[in-house]
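Marked as duplicate of an earlier ticket. Keeping the data here for the record.
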Amino acid sequence: MNAIPFLTRPRRDLRVCLILHASRSNNLGVGALSVAQVDVLRGLAIELHLNLSITLLDWHDDGAACVSGDDITIIPIRGKDLLTRSGAYAHLEAADIVLDIGAGDSFADIYGTRRLKRVFWLKYLTHLAGTPLVLAPQTFGPFTNPVSRALARASINMSALVCARDKASVAHLREIGVGRDVVVASDVALRLRKEGGMPVVERPRVGLNVSGLMMSGGYQGTNQFGLSVDYPALMERLIAGFLAHPKQPEVHLIPHVICPDMPVEDDMAALRALKEHFPSVHVAPAFATPSQAKGYISEMSFMAGSRMHACIAALSSGVAVVPLAYSRKFSGLFGALGYAHVADCRTMSSETITNAVMDGFELRSVLAKDARAAALEGLARLAAYEDGLRGLMDTLARTMQKPATQGAAGQLTPV
């Protein structure tokens, strides 16, 4: 049956560019943000009757992409592509809107100047191109250097929409002089779909997500995150405690950053080393996608985790979880959702953290209930981000279509 002409809305085109997302990241948390972000965009495009094309500027990598589809174009970039008009700039200029999620928490001083320079460069290329920049829900700061504070403040004030995933980030933005409106949302990975499953067993399953980076003491091996505990000893203590528990739970060691070429950060290398000391534990596979990791985590009866997005995967699946924090992003995100079961590895003793984890296992039905309530609160907060993005996409599709551009070759000067 043919559609009635006056009831058929014309489809409009909208070109979206994603920066500081990742399609091939070894960090499944960043991948989870990207997959969920694409799902949000596709849902809004259906509502707004848009022909959506998404270009994802991704650091060059040979791995398989976790996002795909006819509407997706992945452009691998290297450092040199930030310096030419025909590189990243051309794609930022051709887009109608640019979404920047800051890899979750990379818009901060804590990971070093090399990473932060790239973060700033992509933002200022977008401003230079005159394309509206959306700062999707992320952690902002801490910014301790006066130069990074000034650059962050200026970029945020020039952005079309700014969304934080916790109130602590908003407070920090106010501290560095940002006076504009900021939407308080939550982490988009709460929307991540899960894949796969595991056979049903009678014994409870305990998941322990171990951070290879924290096992290494940070990138320089010098307790980079200021932990108050001996992290490797704490992991061994937790494993031994669960293996000796009267309920005899299955203990599963679960990775969320899988990078064999970077042993200092690779969770799998850390898990294999732990298995040599504890042969009876199960080591989860090297997941190919964030959704596979979430599917595995969703089968746990209880989990303690050091990678925040592994903990988000648990919480959004209704799994009792005790996050083991190494930065304020944990308390900011989970605290904003009313989930109080966070153990802070920067301030608590090993004994206090061990007790919190073991008590959480005993009270896992209570924690699971709290996790489900927190996940619902997070989804409600995400609606505020989606509302703001919906309005901006609709306006741009109506009034700000750009002609396709071909960037001229040449070097860019610093902004």
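See parent ticket for discussion. The CA atoms of residues 343 and 356 lie 7 Å apart.
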